[in-house]
Amino acid sequence: MSIVGIDFGSHTASVAIWYEEKNVVEVLADDLGSRTIPTAVAFRGDEIITGQAAISQMHKNANNTFDDVRSLLLSDSVANINVPLLDKDLTVQEVSSHFFRNIHNQIKQQVGKVVRDCVISVPKSLDEDIRKRLVESAQAGGMRVKALIEDSVSALMAHHLDEPSTAPTRTLVLDLGWSATSLSLYNVSGGLLFPVGTTTLSEASGCTFVNLVAAHCAKEFARKHKIPCDDNKKSMMRLRRECENAMKSLSTGAEATIDIDSLCEGVDYSSKLSRARFEDLITIPFMHLKNAINALLAQAGWSADSVQQVLLSGGGSAIPKVISTLKSMFPTAKFPVGRFEPSETPCIGACLHGKFLSQQGLIESAPTASPVAPILTRGLRIASAAGADSVEVLPVNTVLPVRVELNAALPAGQTKGFVQLLATAVELADAATPLGDLVFEHAAEGELRLVLAVSELGEISLEVVQSADQTVLANLTVPAAEA
Question: What are the structural domain ranges in the chain?
C-alpha cells in the first residue's frame, strides 16, 4: 500500500509518495511540472481554481482569492470566510478542502492510481480543535489523514536521524518558511528524538524577504518614473510575485531580472537585482535570526561549538546567505545534504513516517502526535549538606517520566538529616542551582530511601522515606515552570 507525505505550508505545499512495490520515495510534480504547489484557492465565475492557476489571476480577482488557506485553517479566530462572488460565507474547512481535492487529483494524475492515505507535516503545538479542522478539511478533499507530524521532526526523519544506529548528536533544525522561521534544538540518539528547545520568529521569513525587495523596487520605480505604485494593490501583487521569482533565481545565480509589463499607469518596469544587493536588503532580518539562535542556545545551555549538526528545511533556507550565516555561527557543525531540495524536506520526512507506520502495521492506529520523547533539560543532583559536593542522580536528556530510588542512612549518632536538590545546565555542570532543601529527623536506626521523580510535564518531587515502615519523613515538590 502506497502512502503520501504532505508538507502543508503557509505559501506552498509539496507532496512525496512512497511506492510500496518499489520501496522508493519521490517528490511529485503538479501538472505544470512544479514540485511546489501554492496553497491558494480562488472562485472565478463558475470555477473553483487552486494552486498556481489561482495565484496567476489573483491581481485581477483579489477579493475572491485566498492565497494562504493554511493560516486560515490553523487560526482559531477564523471560522468562516466571505466569498463576494458567491455572496455568502463558507467555512474554512470547505474552502481549504478544495486545495486538498487538488492534491488528491494531482496524485491520481501523476501516479496513475488513487492514493488517499497521507501523513501531513504541520507546525508545532496545534491544539486538538485545530487538528480536527485540518483532518476534516483533508478528508473532505479526498485524503485520509493517518498521522500529523511536526515540521522539525519531519526534517529529522528526512535525514534518517530516527534510525536506531544514529550516534548521539546535538542538532539544530532551521525551518525558514514563508510566514515565519522555526528554530528547534534536539538531542538525537539511537533513533530517539529529544527536544531541548524551540522558538519561532516572524521577523525573518520568505514573506519578509519578498516584501523588502518589493519595497526597494517600488521606490526605484517611483524614482525613475515619478509614479508611486506602493499604494496600488494590484501593482504590488504583481511586483511581489516577480520579486519572489527573482529571489528563487538568486539562490542559484548571481543576478536576477525583474520585468513587468504595465506595472502601474501603463508604465513598464524592468530592473536587475544582484545577489549582493539582495543580501544587503535583508540584513536586518538576519540580525533578528542570529539573535534568536543565540538566545535559544543560551536558554538550552548549549554553546555554538557543541552543535554537531544543522538541518535546513523550508524554501527560504536555500538562500546562500542563510547557509553562509549558519556556517559562520557553527563552524564545527556538519550540514547534511539530502537528495532533495530544502523545500521538500518536510514532505519527505512525513512520507518516511508514513512508510514506517505502514511497514509496522500501525497505519490504521497511528498516533496523531509527532514521535518526540519529552526529556529532562537540566541535570538533577543531590547534596547531603549546603555547599557540599553533589552527586548526579538524573543526567540531562533523561526521558520522562522517570523515577529513581537511592538508599541512604544518617551517620552514627545523628538524628537530623539534610538533603539539597540542585539542577545543572547542560554546559555548566559546576554551576548548580538549588531547587529546594529537605530537613528531617530520623531517631530510629535503619535505612532511608530518597525517591526522586519527574513527571512527563517536568514537575519534580523528592521524598525521604523510612524504609522499614514506608513513612515519608520529608517531601519537596518543584513545579515544572520552576524546574
Answer: 1-159+339-372, 206-283, 379-478
